[in-house]
Amino acid sequence: MTEPFNIDEIKQAVFQLGGDKAPSPDGFPLRFYQVRWDTVKEDIMRLFQEMFEGRLSTNPIDYTYICLIPKKEGATRANDYRPISLLNGIQKILSKVLANRLEQVMDNLISPSQSAFLKGRNITDAYVTVAELLSWGNKKAIEGVTVKVDFEKAYDRIDWSFLFRILRWWGFDDKWCGWIEQCVCHAKAAILINGEATNWIKTKRGVRQGDPLSSFLFLLVAECLSRLTNEAIRNNLLKVFKAPNWAIKRIEALRRDFFWTSGLNSAGKGCLLAWKNICKSKREGGLGILDVGAMNCALLTKWWWKFQQAPHLQWNRVIRDLYYIRRRPLMEGRSFRPQSHWWKGVLSLKSIFKWGSTYKLGNGNSIDFWLDRWCGETTLGSAFPKIYQISNRRYLKVSEVLTEDGWNWNGIFGIDSEILIGLEDDIAELKDRLSHFYLGQSPDQIFWRWSSNRLFSVKSTYLALTDGGTRDPGLNEIWGLHIPLKVKVFCWLALKKRLPTTDLLAKRGWVGNTVCVLCGVEDESVDHLFTRCVFTKFIIVMEVTGIQVTDLDNDVIRVWEI
Question: Where is the Reverse transcriptase domain (predicted)?
Fold first, then answer.
């Protein structure tokens, strides 16, 4: 924690910070330090060396503007505003380097009940814990009281003397506490009112919104309250969802109307292309607009990954206690216990998780013999459906049939040999596939086959769920052109042959003259306007070098390829 600073960790911190934040008192955005890193790195390194040696004066580095963001329309009182600190770039870099060091030990200091601000945890974890317990209590008709406690002006109320008592109690030495003091306790702030700064004010307590250190320091203070609460419980002093289809359809309808008709409720009449095609990725010929239903599924599938990877977290223990029997999850059989709305939604996505996950065999305790991908690209249940269908042990862990002595074939096939008649070839192939697997001592490893780093990501899951398998390189080239976005969309519609030409309008019931207003020869269509119309041919031949009239085909897509 108090080792000498090195240039690599400083550079990492600089490039982790957002470069386009609002300007601070010194007027230098963080983008300046990122773009001119080679120029300023030596000066910044000297500054960190001075801090390490205790010679750094943070005046006026830690001067801060406080910008008041209204929480609601018509804000009139101080409580109606959210204060955001606009820190100098150098101050943010100092704080970010210390925050990166502090982050390495935070997971060991903060109890699992706190789920915000830490890598690998999410504030929705706490929601799941509460929702599941409330659902279980309601179904069991258990009487009780739920108390929601909120911190008012949480960051502003942190007492500095208490903060440093906590840091020393955690075991941080005087050198580290001195660095934190330099970043927190010497600050001066000016409030921006109508763009003008007030006089500088010396702060007496609190940590600043926008400081990379603030969230971690707040967690350390809040951990004390959490532990006091747990102690009170021991002393008997105190005793997130899958969207329904109708909601997704409604959201998609609103987005569709906004896209095509600027929010007018057109009931789909103004749409030039089916919404499902709009939501396809650009490489598939769509616009890459988010598919709400698929994203909802991808986000919820993450819970399955967390369920496997983080069994020690509080929400995970709650789920296991509520829905597990004899170490067997209720999702693998009929459930006699009522399930919450959230858990039902997660269960409905089990097949997606099974589809995207693959395992490396360790001790075999967590791998489903038939239903998980651990022995090739497909599950054994899919590769050997005849054997799987007659098996009376479909929910079977690998560790139950594989020991140090080898495979327990009776455990896999059963002891009734008559039902296996006619499956000799399948059995021989299965035995051959399993012959090179051996049980290990380490836990099984799970990987996400849709992600390049083999770890779960919502993005890779979403892309897998929405990948139609087709590619349209011609349409995809549009988005690399250096032209305005509205022109790109126009070209995209032209290649899709979905521009509102008169022939298309006529098909939708429009009554009027459909003949091209430029040449008056043929009906107006996309192909006519961009290839056959004499005015179009003249413009293209005159303006585009190397194209002759004979090159202009009757199809706009062929012309685009030229």
Answer: 50-320
